[in-house]
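Page 47, continued from p. 46.
Same chain as before, 387 aa.
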Amino acid sequence: MKPDKKPIGMIERLSTEREKEALRPKVAEVDDGPSLAYILNGPNSRFFGEMLAMAPDEEPREVAMRMSSGRLEERDLDLLEKYRNEFNKKMQTMETLEAEITPENLGLFAQHSEKFSKIIKLLGPEKAVRAIKSELRNLYFGDEESRERFAGIQKAIQGLTEYKGDKGEFAKIEKEIREKCKANNISEEDFEAAMQIKDVAERREKIEEMIKEKYGKVRKFGLAFSFGEKKLNDRTRELTVLAVHANEAIDQRIKNMEEKMKAVGEALFAASSKDDEFRQALGREILNEKHPRREPESGFNEVKQRMPHTKTLDREMLAAWDVFKADINNAYSDAMPESAKDSDRDRFITDYKRKHGNKFKGTRGFWGTMFTSMFDLAVDKRRDILK
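Result:
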């Protein structure tokens, strides 16, 4: 006969459940946006490089160089994570801004900005959206002037969106309306309907009618009484003035919003008129052409693939060195003075970097510049293999 199983205690049962949860495998997630690996191999790697290039000190560029050559130092991991977070925040800012660039919004900006309306008349809202979005990131991660133009657009759009979301200026008058409506036994819906009557005399008459209807005769303690003429006029005047103030506040808000929409249009026009690449983007939309990448194949992974491996570089340099020596009619020999050998090596290295550095030609971005420097440095370091 098997012994009875010992009953599981409450604490043990709860612990077992929690242990199951703690030991359940979870898919690792990257906080605060894409991983660095995704950024470097994705469509925005060029912009990540430009962010590093904009740094006021050399540290980000030195870390990028060590990362690219596979020689990370102890503190580099923390620095790379810092740069990743910084870049992802910038991209979130960009995406928030891009979300406001819609055909409907551009149409509104054009209504209030005569200058920007020229662009909409030339392209139409849909094409204008494509042209603007194709250049916004280039402005954000461009040179100092480009970044200033982007900042102007960003400030104008943020000013508009924040103003649309903040209706604090209505708080005081809203409170007063609620109090007056309650005091006069008038619903806020009825008062809102009266406010929308444009004719001032007609609006006053409507408010007076509402007051008479609610307070003209009121039963109190079983007795009927009526408002006196003065009290009726006073209450009518109070609510009429309040309706005027409310409409004035709304009118002022609409005017302020129109000014802010104009500011966005002016900022977009200023950027498009002063930036060569921006104007070309507008021109491409007029001609119905596609927008090419500003710097083709200038992302990290694309440029890195052009960097030759160590053994490949050794083999190619030695083969080119043999050709170089043959081209100078065998004038190079072991018997030459060391100074003459050094001079020939210098000429060869300079010529080799000039001929083979074109691997990175056309890649004006940060990664192209960095890998060009790395290539030149790798060639220089191989001076000793040239015998």
